[in-house]
Input
Amino acid sequence: MRKSWVLTVVLTMTAVGGVAAASPYLHAQSPDLASLSDSDLKSVTIRMERKGCLGECPEYTIVINGDGKVEYEGRHNVKVKGTRQGKADRETIKWLIGVLAHAKFMEVADDYSANDCHCRRFCTDMPSAVSEVSVGSASHRVWHYYGCTCAPESLSDVEAAIDEAAKARRWVGNKGIGVYGTSCRDVSQSD
Output
C-alpha cells in the first residue's frame, strides 16, 4: 500500500511540474497578439531592459504602454542618464504589436540566458536584453543573452523594434555594442 501511495505522489508531482515547466501562462491564457481589440491594446505593456557587457554596451530600460506613454531610464554608456518620457502614436503601437505577433513572442522559450544556454556554440562577455510583454493578466518575459547563439533571431528583431517604437536613439545615442574580450567556443555533446 505504501509503495502505491509514494508512486502516486511522485507521478502527481511529475505531472504538475511538467505542466508548470511547459507553460508560462498558468494563470492566464496567452493572448493572440495579432487580433487584439482596441481595449486590449490599452492594457498592453512592453518592457525591455538592455544589460551591460564587458565593454561599452548601453544599459537602459524602455517601457511602452498601450496608451502610447514611453518611459526610459538610462544607466550606463548612454547619451542621457536618468529618466525621460516620450510618446508613441497608436499606429506605432500597432506596428510593434505586429512585430511581436510575427515573432510569436508569447510562445518563445523564456530563457536564453548565459546560465541556461544549451547551444552548441557559446560566446562570452556579450550583452543581454530582457523583454516582457503583458496584455491584461497574461505576461511573458524572455531573457536573451547575445552569446547564446541558438536563441531565435526574431528576439533581436523584437528588441530592435522596441527601440525603434520608443525612439530610444534620442536618449541612448549612436553607440554600437562595443564588446571587448568576447570569445566563442563550440560546446561538445559531452559537456
